[in-house]
Amino acid sequence: MKNTIHVERAIRRITQADLASAVGVSRQTINALEAAKYVPSVVLAMKIANYFEKPVEAIFELGEED
Amino acid sequence: MKNTIHVERAIRRITQADLASAVGVSRQTINALEAAKYVPSVVLAMKIANYFEKPVEAIFELGEED
DNA sequence: CTTAAATGTAAAGTTTGTTTTACATTTGAA
DNA sequence: TTCAAATGTAAAACAAACTTTACATTTAAG
Q1: CB A2 within 8 A of CB A39
Q2: Where in this chain does the record put each HTH cro/C1-type domain (chains A, B) (predicted)?
Q3: In terms of pTM, does the model score above 0.85?
Q4: Is strand D less than 7 A from the beta carbon of A28?
Q5: CA–CA separation, A17 and A29 (whole Å)
Q6: Does any CB of chain A come closer than 8 Å to the CB of residue B24?
Q7: Protein CB footprint (7 Å) on chain C nucleotides
Q8: A35: Cβ under 7 Å from strand C?
Q9: What is the mean predicted confidence (pLDDT) over B58-63?
Q10: How confident is the model at residue A55, as a pLDDT?
């Protein structure tokens, strides 16, 4: 599971804390997600995708591991 | 969180057990998902969406609760 | 250079996803 | 109607998501 959250964030010049509060999770959750430390729930994934106005697949990609 | 798994399954005339083994989870997991008893991980959601050849958003929908 | 904001990281704890086992009920085909 | 397959459900156990607190490091602006 890979994701491009930090890229999307960079484009919009948004902070981890900003995104976190926008989607209702802690900043560490966003930080850990960007570090690919774990796999989020679909709900969180969809909230993030919605926030960036992109489909889930544009931000999250299945890897070999999955 | 709503989903249309059982509809997609009906269309393809596929059993819960079939889908379960196709995406690598237990049959109870699929059953519980259809009953909306919990929210899956993005990985599982994407595997299910891929299996049905549809985007995640076509199968999973955020509700008020989320 | 200095300072504040942003980020990385880590441990402990809570909650929630997922598996396993097991059994009861429904459905469909013969 | 009978039997097998499919589905519903439930409890215990385990794994993984997510929070909280707390601190160290990096980055950017003044």
Answers
A1: no
A2: 5-59
A3: yes
A4: yes
A5: 10
A6: no
A7: 5-11, 16-22
A8: yes
A9: 96
A10: 98
Q: Which residue has the higher pLDDT, A3 or B64?
A: A3
- The verdict on a CB contact (< 8 Å) between B47 and A56 is no
One of 1.20.1250.20, 3.90.1150.10, 1.10.10.10, 1.10.260.40 is the CATH number of B2-61, namely: 1.10.260.40
Please tell me if residue B60 touches chain A, with a CB cutoff of 8 Å: yes
Handedness of CA A6, A11, A17, A22 (dihedral sign): negative
A13-42 per-position pLDDT tens digit: 999 999 999 999 999 999 999 999 999 999
Q: Hey, what CATH topology would domain A2-58 get? A: 434 Repressor (Amino-terminal Domain) (1.10.260)
